[in-house]
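pls ignore typos typing on phone
zinc ion + seq
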Amino acid sequence: MDKIKEIRAYELIDSRGNPTVACFISTEKGAKGFSIVPSGASTGVYEAHELRDKDNTRFFGKGVTKAVENINEIIAPNLLKENIFSQRKVDDFLINLDGSENKKCLGANAVLAVSLAFAKAAASSQKIPLYKYLGGENAKKLPVPMMNILNGGAHASNNVDIQEFMIVPFGIKTFAEQMRAGCEIYAVLGKILKEKGLISGVGDEGGYAPSLSGDEEALELIIEAVFKAGYNTDAVGIALDVASSEWAQNGAYLLPKRNLLKTSDELIEDYENLCEKYPIISIEDGLGEDDTEGWKKLTERLGKKINLVGDDLFVTNTKRLKMGIKENIANSILVKLNQIGTLSETLDVMEMAKKYGYKNIVSHRSGESEDTFIADLAVAVNAPFIKSGAPCRSDRVAKYNRLLLIEKEI
Ligand code: PGA
Ligand code: ZN
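k done
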């Protein structure tokens, strides 16, 4: 038993320069937990509510002083003296205290900051690493990194419509060697882009953001980089996050950067063609969150060959995943803590996914910080994959570095 002594929230800054909520919790025995919550750009409509001030005189309305105040004035007084090992009870309390379906009253950013700092303080009180506190003795397997080395969509100001092109070194043995492959391929891709006069800055997740003739050019360039770096496509696959909910418009899809209008069926055909031609092992949000009929077709056509990942589709929510299981759509789920707002609900959705044969892919957001919670979470639940961007930008690399250290420890 160890009791909460102090809970304090702060408005800090995320990797896009936007305000975000941080929370510090200490206990009577001197344990400490600190968390900083992330923030998405291509958010799903069914996500929990991120509370922003909407005061246009500060940070263009993106301040989070209300969420911070909700922690300091409403949540903290209720949780003082609470046993730090009662994660489930506290998460349930926070859900009820908020009282809304999507945490719009206190803000999912406020609730999550407390939930995560609480877990970290508990691990610190037991003097064990977070992955062990969350996963026990079974927390032994490292996830394979899905490294987003070329950015488009809402994450980059270029003309590429697909949001993320990731390399996945699934055929390489250790996490350290997988990272080495990712870093080497990323460096070679940079060189190739430079030689071709295509070099650019990086996008929100650290991938290059060149303007290209189309999605296929991105795939060709990445494969060239894989081979030039001394690897092959038996060991390194490609994953796409289409983030097509961003394109959904009146029952069709408008690819905004190239101004192309496509139907659900046409997109499915495009994906089948891409999978024939390239070593694609995973497609995320290939169709929109409300296109259930399209998802059924997509799953029938590609569900046995590759990972079909629901991000905006499932929003880390057991109700949405249950719908997916019932309709037999997708076969993998992207897991983002701030889509649902508490650690316990996130653990619930991952357990449900595992039970029904869906793969858990633990993920960062495009707006991130130095907080490495998701690295420990991925190990705790033996998630097969983690998405944390390119091996570039400290907000991305912090998670990979944490995993490198965990691999040494295990
Ligand atoms: P987001 O992007 O954090 O902007 O939603 C990440 C993703 O779509 O996977
Ligand atoms: Zn996504």
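The mean pLDDT is 97. The first helix runs from residue 65 to 79. more later
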